[in-house]
Design goal:
The protein is built from 14 helices and 15 strands. The chain has about 475 residues and is an alpha/beta fold. The chain folds into 2 domains: about 140 residues, Rossmann fold (3-Layer(aba) Sandwich); about 280 residues, Dihydrodipicolinate Reductase, domain 2, CATH 3.30.360.10. The longest helix is centred in the last third of the chain and has 19 residues. The radius of gyration is 24 Å and the shape is globular. It binds 6-O-phosphono-beta-D-glucopyranose. The site of 6-O-phosphono-beta-D-glucopyranose has 5 residues, from helix 9.
Length: about 475
């Protein structure tokens, strides 16, 4: 993991982005690539080719990038010189041939066979077509075994259910080797999520308490105030559980509950996560009814691209358990929603009350539980909540905390954007931050029965007010 000695500068690379005028490019990729360029971490020989269906000239595409870049000025103009554009339809093989010519032209100019990183920033229903056409057009063939690697980066969700994910995986397996495939989950690349590993496995204090005997409950949340902006069509085909549950929440769950890896090798870390994901039990209909809530915010159906009778959830809460000796019986609560009254991503660990509990007064059973909070967004940090004596004659207690906040310890620039981590690692060929195919299948095995149960109407869709805490 994270081989910092290997620098990108000596990896001549072309990044080809499918869906280069989309939401992801605008919000995440463009700012990250710009930041990498400004800080001088990109390869010396580097180009980006945008591929999308809009019929733009190179000049018009650069104008689009200029409009959406988070900064303006001469430096940004220099940066834009690295971009070119290939208009085309994902279904049209001829457009891939044209893309091939552009790649050949750049290789010729650099007088080298560059590495090619194909990034699928498109809705999942296009994956199959793009994979097929990439393979058919021969674009993903490296120049030789030693020179000019090719890799594909795929956005989440990988597939829309277990069956589709397996089919897609089979296809990918025929066209590419596993070391060429990078399946994205950008939550794994957040500084605060990576820090979960360091906090747990570089400190001895908590690890001995990290089990059912000491921990009463684990809660993992991604709550958002924002709605869907321009993503109605895409989001409506998924719903919240596929959008963030099957991936971000389950990956965080794996990091927070997995056993200690013996090394930091990508395979070792992925293996530990997989052990956890395989222990998520398949919910029965009765459990789906009892342990899940799903909601949709008022006004969702009026968003462009959303079906007028849409049953897609924009909120969910799921209670589950891990079926292994370390965590047996400990409830794990996963919650996420849009248009809520809070914006936060966090993991809360609630420890059991001390027994005996001399400071617990009768009727105050819920008091005196320590909590450990990993705040992933927006105020990144870690806090541990404990009890302390209030000064005076009485032995009265109150809650206090020990905390660390990134913004107090580091300058803002030290926080690497998540997509910068991901692109750097994909350039370097480090797969630690990219879930393995087995992890993805195990996640679908857990999520699929819930989605199917919801489709049948078990646990009805509840409408909630915007700017609220979700369904009652
Ligand atoms: C994305 C989802 O994967 O994650 C979005 O598609 C969600 O719907 C986003 O808003 C949350 O990520 P972040 O980094 O903004 O917390």
């Amino acid at each position: 993991m994270k081989n910092h000695e290997r620098k990108l500068e000596n990896f001549p690379t072309i990044l080809i982005i499918f869906g280069a005028t989309g939401d992801l490019m605008e919000r995440k990729l463009l700012p990250s690539i710009l930041h990498m360029w400004e800080t001088g971490v990109l390869p010396k020989m580097f180009r980006v080719i945008g591929f999308a269906k809009e019929n733009l000239t190179q000049k018009e595409y650069r104008a689009w990038l200029r409009k959406n870049a988070p900064k303006k000025g001469k430096r940004v103009e220099d940066f834009l010189q690295n971009f070119s554009y290939q208009p085309g339809f994902f279904e049209n093989i001829e457009n891939y041939a044209e893309l091939g010519k552009k790649l050949g032209y750049i290789d010729g100019k650099f007088r080298i066979c560059t590495n090619k990183l194909f990034y699928l920033a498109v809705p999942p229903n296009y994956y199959e077509t793009i994979f097929q056409n990439l393979a058919k057009s021969g674009l993903t063939k490296p120049c030789s075994p030693k020179e000019g690697w090719t890799r594909v980066l795929v956005e989440k969700p990988f597939g829309q259910d277990l069956e589709k994910a397996q089919k897609l995986d089979l296809l990918l397996g025929k066209l590419f080797k596993e070391i060429q495939i990078f399946r994205i989950d950008h939550y794994l690349a957040k500084e605060t999520v990576l820090n979960l590993l360091v906090f747990r496995f570089a400190n001895s204090v908590f690890e001995n308490l990290w089990n059912k005997d000491f921990i009463e409950k684990i809660t993992i949340k991604i709550l958002e105030k924002s709605g869907l902006e321009k993503r109605g069509l895409f989001y409506d085909s998924l719903g919240a559980l596929r959008d963030v549950g099957q991936n971000h929440l389950l990956q965080m769950l794996a990091f927070i509950t997995m056993d200690a890896p013996l090394t930091l090798d990508p395979e070792e870390i992925r293996k530990r996560k997989l052990e956890i994901l395989k222990r998520l039990p398949k919910m029965t209909q009765n459990e789906i009814k009892k342990n899940t809530v799903r909601g949709q915010y008022q006004g969702y159906k009026e968003i462009e691209g959303v079906k007028p009778n849409s049953q897609s959830e924009t909120y969910f809460k799921v209670k589950t358990f891990l079926d292994n000796p370390r965590w047996k019986g400990v409830p794990i609560i996963l919650e996420s929603g849009k248009k809520l009254n809070k914006y936060l991503s966090e993991i809360e660990i609630t420890f059991r009350q001390t027994t005996p509990c001399p400071f617990c007064k009768t009727g105050e059973k819920e008091r005196h539980k320590n909590t450990l909070l990993f705040q992933i967004q927006p105020k990144e940090g870690i806090s541990f909540c404990f009890f302390s004596k209030i000064p005076g004659h009485k032995m009265e207690t109150e809650e206090k905390d020990l905390h660390f906040f990134y913004q107090e310890s580091y300058r803002k620039e030290r926080m690497l954007p998540d997509y910068e981590h991901l692109l750097t690692d994909a350039f370097l060929g480090d797969q630690t931050l990219f879930p393995s195919t087995k992890e993805i299948m195990a996640s679908w095995k857990f999520v699929d029965p819930i989605l199917k149960g919801w489709q049948k109407g078990i646990s009805p869709l509840k409408i909630y007010k915007q700017n609220s805490s979700g369904p009652k």
